[in-house]
């Protein structure tokens, strides 16, 4: 049983035997850098990285946000109240664990003084121990109960395993009926997961928008007055059409949000399938250097060593080091972790920097819209009561003393609803939600590209990445290793498996070292067609080599017993075992990086099996290592030494702390292991370079191997680039001062013989230089670095549980090409949001200016409430769906990375939207003031002429938005149609909008206050709309300044606020 997450381990029942393991690798990043705010200005929306933002910071930007519907606006952000409750619950459980530990120590002291008895086990169903006793023993770490249940057995867990009818070697040996019986008795390893919100809940939340509520109230009042003055048959149209339009907005909004929530539910299920923690409560059966990080339960960051004196393992804790096998004693909600997860299992979302910034944009637009709406309201009311407003037929709307109270109230309500509708259009509630829409879409697609996103904001941040610090083994290379060269007894063996000429003593020691100093195994395949080898790629390569030269794995292992293990460590670059042979002789075997083992060796076995001093042959061995490394081979050395029995601690506790001797070794062999580059890595590295993202290799291998692979992958252009500081050793970099590291860091392309801490130092130095750093990591020691990184990328295959838990994105296939795809998707998220902003701002500016100018000059608005609500629907919900789901294009990877504080609305976007808005405003205002004569409507009645003119304005305005959606797809490219046929959702939305517009004009005139248009006016509307395409092409030839307009305009605002705060 590998370690895993708590939600889904249905196959883990009480009594199952399982393995827990941790491996080591490298990778990390650190905090650093940042940007200083000008003039002591504190902008609540200026949060460049929400990964470690405090709750106070997040609360501050929310309080500064203008939101008409807070429940909808902040649905997919972190629920601050729930987050505080979660922290309180976690603290309570941690306090519980600490109290238990203190009580246990007190109890053990008392037991030693006076002796104690344990309640005998009570049979439960088919088993000799009850669920509550089992859970209590594990939860309370009751070693006395374990000893009593263990009876006379030396292995304490033996008694409990017999009570549970479990074999400590093979686990449960039973059929489905027995598993079902265990599940009924002890529960399943799941906890209840809260269901997502229903569609009705989304309808209710969409209804909470203040402006929509005001519109409904106004519409009901208008409906009542209309029916009273004009009768039911004609009087319900005005109020009824507004009610219908508002309900349609609510329904479409709720449907869109509900679909998003389903998307997130599916993604959360995928996350829960990634197993990260110790999956159940249990008791250790056996283990080697097993260390557990219990901070998730106790709150203490101290790593706890597990052995027969401290055998209890808690669900939800991380395996920090070593390996072991455990007996499961508690699953699901019968564990402390299960109870905690059941109470906080609902995914509450998180903040992303883009969401925060878009809330700032939405707030600014909303304030402008509110000011415009108040201006329109004041102007229209003034004109109404001064008698300068006229009806469509030319009659004065209000005459003091003559107009009835009902007609006056109805007129005021229409003016009020027009002003409120401007607010509805102006405040883009859908803008921050467009982030979640595009993120949900991107996360789904990234799963297909072997990248599981654990934190939403990582998608965005990856688009800003300026450098990627990548591991070599398994990421840039295939991690499919084969021994292709070997030096044994100072001879080069060619081919490497042909060692028949070697002395029997050399062969015996080599067999023993390969077979015993490994976590892998050799066994017969199930089909009987040969042998299979398990273990890490390096160990598999060595075991395959041993089998090829005739090593009998099982026989060799039976001739000696392993009594101490020192697992491979990425810092020391070596690992070893101590074995006792049948003749009581003790050998300590070591295996690791060739130059490190060689430096610790003083002798070697020659071809006759005699010990020789290594001093005069050191040059030969070093030359062999350098030669293999230059050909991109991983060099591993195998050595041993004999230990005297009196040097070995007899006490088990002292033996657990004993360090294997690491000097005076006898060299047995040096082997070169080939690990070929992954197919497509060179192209992926070139793609990153073209995109302005520098790829750096950080590896534990020696410098020669690292250089050879870097040249092969394209990280180094040639051997001529392989000079310091482009290529540097971890130790050299570590010994530099902090300022020297910052100076050197940007030039580093390859770091060899690095430890996880060296990688962390590199990334901290890079971030202080303003770089946005993505880091890959697979080892437990990488966890702090991954946690602190801008984007932590854990490896899904080789990565340990701790590394995955600390990461932002898990690369499921360990492939560097998948990392590059994440960069591509990250840029796509940002680009899609910018497309949507350009589209939405164009509509906002045009609609607001047209209505304001018309209201002030003529006392009438050409776009009425229902029409504006339809425009809002196109702009807010349908526009987001169409533009936020654009797939990434190759063009994105030919840009430089987007800076974390670059303005959302670029100068290119300003140019595009100003041109389109000016065109729309200009041509539609011309028709508003001179449409009657231009369209030759003078012979029609005034009322009908105005209706035709306003219908044309409305129709042309909507068609302008439909055609401008195509322009928004490619803000900086001439061909806005490239790839459009591949985006079926975009085509469907644009097509549906166009068909609905035809239905509105031709059949729903009563509701939208429009009349039918003949084919000439339809053609004119289409020409007005289509003209936005050539206009957009022409506009792209207009150069724009490099300094962002936002900076020019916002500096006075910053100074003003800073002065006010002074």
UniProtKB/TrEMBL annotation:
**InterPro entries per record:** ATPase_P-typ_cation-transptr_C (IPR006068), ATPase_P-typ_cation-transptr_N (IPR004014), ATPase_P-typ_cyto_dom_N (IPR023299), ATPase_P-typ_P_site (IPR018303), ATPase_P-typ_TM_dom_sf (IPR023298), ATPase_P-typ_transduc_dom_A_sf (IPR008250), ATPase_P-type_domA (IPR059000), Ca_ATPase_N_dom (IPR024750)
Protein family: Belongs to the cation transport ATPase (P-type) (TC 3.A.3) family. Type IIB subfamily.
Under which name does UniProt file this protein? Calcium-transporting ATPase
Source organism per UniProt:
Escallonia rubra
As recorded in UniProt, its EC number(s) are 7.2.2.10
The cellular location(s) given in this protein's UniProt record come to: Membrane
Question: GO CC terms on record?
Answer: plasma membrane
Q: Which domain of life is it from?
A: Eukaryota
């Amino acid at each position: 049983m590998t370690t895993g997450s708590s939600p889904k381990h249905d196959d883990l029942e009480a009594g199952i035997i399982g393995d827990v393991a941790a491996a080591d690798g490298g990778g990390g990043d650190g905090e650093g850098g940042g940007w200083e705010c000008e003039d002591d200005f504190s902008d609540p929306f200026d949060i460049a990285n929400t990964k470690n933002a405090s709750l106070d910071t997040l609360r501050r930007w929310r309080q500064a946000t203008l939101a008409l519907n807070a429940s909808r606006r902040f649905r997919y952000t972190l629920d601050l109240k729930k987050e505080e409750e979660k922290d309180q619950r976690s603290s309570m459980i941690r306090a519980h664990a600490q109290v238990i530990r203190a009580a246990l120590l007190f109890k053990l002291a008392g037991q030693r003084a006076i002796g104690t008895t344990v309640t005998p086990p009570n049979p439960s169903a088919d088993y000799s121990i009850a669920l509550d006793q089992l859970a209590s023993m594990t939860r309370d770490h009751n070693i006395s109960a374990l000893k009593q249940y263990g009876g006379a057995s030396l292995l304490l867990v033996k008694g409990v395993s017999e009570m549970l009818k479990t074999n400590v070697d093979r686990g449960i040996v039973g059929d489905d009926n027995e598993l079902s019986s265990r599940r009924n008795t002890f529960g399943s390893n799941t906890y209840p997961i809260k269901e997502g919100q229903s569609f009705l809940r989304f309808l209710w939340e969409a209804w909470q928008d203040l402006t929509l509520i005001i519109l409904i109230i106004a519409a009901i009042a208008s409906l009542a007055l209309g029916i009273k003055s004009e009768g039911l048959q004609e009087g319900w149209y005005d109020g009824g059409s507004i009610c219908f339009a508002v309900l349609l907005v609510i329904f479409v909004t709720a449907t869109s949000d509900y679909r998003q929530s389903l998307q997130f539910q599916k993604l959360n299920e995928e996350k829960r399938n990634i197993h990260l923690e110790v999956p159940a409560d249990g008791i250790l059966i056996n283990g080697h250097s097993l260390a557990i990080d219990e901070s998730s339960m106790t709150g203490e960051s101290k790593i706890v060593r597990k052995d027969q004196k401290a055998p209890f393992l808690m669900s939800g804790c991380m395996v920090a080091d070593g390996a072991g096998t455990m007996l499961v004693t508690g699953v699901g909600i019968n564990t402390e972790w299960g109870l905690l997860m059941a109470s906080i299992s609902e995914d509450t979302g998180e903040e992303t920097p883009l969401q925060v910034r878009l809330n700032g944009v939405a707030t600014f637009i909303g304030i402008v819209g509110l000011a415009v709406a108040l201006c329109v309201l004041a102007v229209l009311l003034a004109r109404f009561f001064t008698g300068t407003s006229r009806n469509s037929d030319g009659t004065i709307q209000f005459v003091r003393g003559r107009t009835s109270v009902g007609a006056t109230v109805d007129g005021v309500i229409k003016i009020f609803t027009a002003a409120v509708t401007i607010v509805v259009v102006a405040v883009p509630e859908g803008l921050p939600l467009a982030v979640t829409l595009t993120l949900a879409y991107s996360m789904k697609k990234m799963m297909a590209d072997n990248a599981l996103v654990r934190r939403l904001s990582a998608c965005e941040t990856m688009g800003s990445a300026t450098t990627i610090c990548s591991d070599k083994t398994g990421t840039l290379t295939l991690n499919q290793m084969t021994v292709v060269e070997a030096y044994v007894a100072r001879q080069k063996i060619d081919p490497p498996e042909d060692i028949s000429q070697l002395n029997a003593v050399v062969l015996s020691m080599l067999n023993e070292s390969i077979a015993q100093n490994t976590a892998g195994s050799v066994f017969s395949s199930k089909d009987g067609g040969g042998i299979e080898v398990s273990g890490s790629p390096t160990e598999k390569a060595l075991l395959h080599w041993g089998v090829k030269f005739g090593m009998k794995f099982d026989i060799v292992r039976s001739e000696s017993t392993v009594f101490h293990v020192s697992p491979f460590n990425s810092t020391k670059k070596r690992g070893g075992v101590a074995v006792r042979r049948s003749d009581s002789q003790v050998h300590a075997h070591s295996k690791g990086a060739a130059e490190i083992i060689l430096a610790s060796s003083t002798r070697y076995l020659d071809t006759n099996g005699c010990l020789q001093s290594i001093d005069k042959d050191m040059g030969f061995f070093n030359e062999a290592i350098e030669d293999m490394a230059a050909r991109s081979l991983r060099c591993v050395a195998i050595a041993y030494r004999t230990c005297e029995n009196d040097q070995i601690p007899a006490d088990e506790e002292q033996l657990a702390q004993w360090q294997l001797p690491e000097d005076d070794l006898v060299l047995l062999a040096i082997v070169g292991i080939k690990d070929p580059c992954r197919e497509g890595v060179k192209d992926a590295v070139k793609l990153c370079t073209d995109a302005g993202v520098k790829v750096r290799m950080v590896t534990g291998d020696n410098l020669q191997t690292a250089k050879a692979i870097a040249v092969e992958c394209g990280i180094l252009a040639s051997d001529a680039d392989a000079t310091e500081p482009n290529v540097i050793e971890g130790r050299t970099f570590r010994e530099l001062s902090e300022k020297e590291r910052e100076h050197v860091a940007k030039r580093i392309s390859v770091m060899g013989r690095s430890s996880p801490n060296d990688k962390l130092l590199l990334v901290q130095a890079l971030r202080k230089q303003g770089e946005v750093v993505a880091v890959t990591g697979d080892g437990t020691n990488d966890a702090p670095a991954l946690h602190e990184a801008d984007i932590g990328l854990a490896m899904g295959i080789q990565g340990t549980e701790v590394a995955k838990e600390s990461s932002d994105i898990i690369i499921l296939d360990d492939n560097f090409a998948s990392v590059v795809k994440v960069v591509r998707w990250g840029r796509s998220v940002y680009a899609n949001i910018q497309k949507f902003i350009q589209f939405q701002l164009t509509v906002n500016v045009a609609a607001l200016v047209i209505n304001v100018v018309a209201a002030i000059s003529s006392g009438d608005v050409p776009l009425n409430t229902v029409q504006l609500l339809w425009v809002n629907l196109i702009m807010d919900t349908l526009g987001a769906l169409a533009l936020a789901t654009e797939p990434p294009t190759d063009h994105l990877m030919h840009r430089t990375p987007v800076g974390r504080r670059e303005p959302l609305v670029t100068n290119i976007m300003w140019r595009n939207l100003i041109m389109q808005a000016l065109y729309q405003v200009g041509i539609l205002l011309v028709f508003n003031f001179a449409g009657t004569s231009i369209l030759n409507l003078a012979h029609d009645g005034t009322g009908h002429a105005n209706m035709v003119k306003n219908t044309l304005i409305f129709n042309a305005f909507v068609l302008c938005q439909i055609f401008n959606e195509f322009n928004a797809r490619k803000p900086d490219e001439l061909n806005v149609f490239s790839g459009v046929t591949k985006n079926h959702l975009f085509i469907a939305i644009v097509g549906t909008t166009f068909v609905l517009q035809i239905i509105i004009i031709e059949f729903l005139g009563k509701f939208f206050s429009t009349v039918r248009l003949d084919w000439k006016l339809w053609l004119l509307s289409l020409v007005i709309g289509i003209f936005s395409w050539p206009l957009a092409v022409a506009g792209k030839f207009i150069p724009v300044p490099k300094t962002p307009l936002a900076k020019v305009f916002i500096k006075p605002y910053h100074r003003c606020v800073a002065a006010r705060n002074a």
